[in-house]
Amino acid sequence: MRGIILAGGSGTRLHPLTIAVSKQLLPVYNKPMVYYPLSTLILAGARQIMIITSPRDVSSFRDLLGDGSDLGIELLYKIQDEPRGIAEGLLLSADFADGEPTALILGDNIFYGAGVGETLETYSKKEGATILVQSVTDPERYGVIELRSDGSVKSLAEKPPAPKSNLAITGLYFLDGTAAERAKLLKPSDRGELEIVDVLNSYLHDGLLEARVLPRGTAWLDTGTFDSMSMASEFVRVVEQRQGFKISAPEEIAFRLGLIDSEQLIKLAEKYSKSDYGVYLRSLIG
Predict the structure, then answer these.
(1) Distance CA 53, CA 33 (A)
(2) Which structural domain range is residue 180 located in?
(3) Residue 196: C-alpha distances to residues 114, 117, 154, 206, 208 (Å)
(4) Where does the Nucleotidyl transferase domain lie (predicted)?
(5) Which residues on adjacent β-strands are paired with residue 74?
(6) Please, which residues bridge with residue 32 across strands?
(7) Judging by DSSP bridges, how do beta strands 31-32 and 27-28 pair with one another?
(8) CATH number of residue 60's parent domain
(9) pTM value > 0.70
(10) Which is it for strands 143-147 and 153-158: parallel, antiparallel or unpaired?
(11) Bridge-partner residues for 71, per DSSP?
C-alpha cells in the first residue's frame, strides 16, 4: 500500500501563522504537525509515502523529513501549485500510486488509540474504498455519512446544513487502484474544487464503499483552527506527561516495527541531543 499526505492548501483559518509557513509544519505540542499523519501511515503499513505540498513549502518539508531513509521508508514530494480540492491529490499522485491501493490522509489529522496501527492495517484491500467515521457533536462542519441498520452506507454529503446523522467522515481514506481514474471524471464543485465526497459517491454507486466506525476510546483530532490545534496540543501534552511515552514519534515507530535498528535510532537521537525528544529516543534502547 502507498501513502499520500495532503499538506498543501493556504491555511487561511490559521492566518497570520500560515502566511509564511505551511500549517503542517506548525507545532502540535512538541512535534511538527506532519509527524502525526506520517506516523499514522507508517502504522497502517505504508512504506512509500508521497507528500503533496505547495511550491513555497516543499523545501522545508525536505529539510525536515529528507527522503525517508532514516526511517526505513521512502518519501517523495509533489508540488500542488494551487489548492484545488482533496481529490486533486489523487490526480497528482496517480503515477506514484501506479494502480495500487493507497491510504490518503489529510496533513492536519491526528489519530490516537490503543491498537490503532493493527486496526488500520486491516483496512487496506484490493477493491473498493474504506472510510473511517466517528460520532461528533457538530457534524455540519464535516462530510457526513448515513448508515443503514446493517451498517452499509446509505448516503454521504459534504457539510450538510441538516445532517442525517452525527457520523463525520475523518480525513483518512483507504482507496483501491481505481481512485485516480474516478477522480479524472470529476467536475469542480461550486467551490471550484475536486471534492473527495464525489469520489466516494462514485464508489458508493458501484457498491464498493465501506464505512468503519472508529471504536470508543480512539481519538480523532483535526487541527485546522486555532482552537482545535490548541486542544490537540493539550491532548498530546497530557497523555505524554501522564504516561511517559511520545505520541506519533516516527523514529520510535520505525524502530518498534523493525524498519531501523538500535544503532540507527541512536544516530537519529543525536540530531536532537539537547532536547527532551532526543533524550526520549535514546531511552528506547534498553
Answers:
(1) 14
(2) 2-132+169-248
(3) 28, 24, 17, 16, 15
(4) 3-236
(5) 48
(6) 27
(7) antiparallel
(8) 3.90.550.10
(9) yes
(10) antiparallel
(11) none
If you compute the radius of gyration of the chain from its CA atoms, what whole number of angstroms results? 18
Classify residue 130 as exposed, middle or buried by CB count within 10 Å of its CB (0-12, 13-18, 19+): buried
Give, for all 286 residues of the chain, the pLDDT tens digit.
Answer: 899 999 988 788 899 989 999 999 999 999 999 999 999 999 999 999 999 999 999 999 999 999 999 999 999 999 999 888 999 999 999 999 999 999 999 999 999 987 777 778 887 766 899 999 999 999 998 999 999 999 999 999 989 999 999 999 999 999 999 999 999 999 998 888 899 999 999 999 999 999 999 988 889 998 989 999 999 999 999 999 999 999 999 999 999 999 999 999 999 999 998 899 999 999 999 7
Distance CA 66, CA 68 (A): 6
Q: How many domains does the chain have?
A: 1
Residue 151 belongs to a domain = no
Domain membership flag for residue 47: yes
Report DSSP letters for 77-143, one per residue: EEE-SS---TTHHHHHTHHHHTTS-EEEEETTEEEE-TTHHHHHHTT--SSSEEEEEEE-S-GGGSE
Amino acid at position 186, single letter: L
Q: Is 202 helix (H, G, I), strand (E, B) or coil?
A: helix
Q: Is residue 115 part of a domain?
A: yes
**Which amino acid, residue 49?**
I
Structure-derived torsion over alpha carbons of residues 30, 36, 42, 47, reported in degrees to the nearest 10 = -100
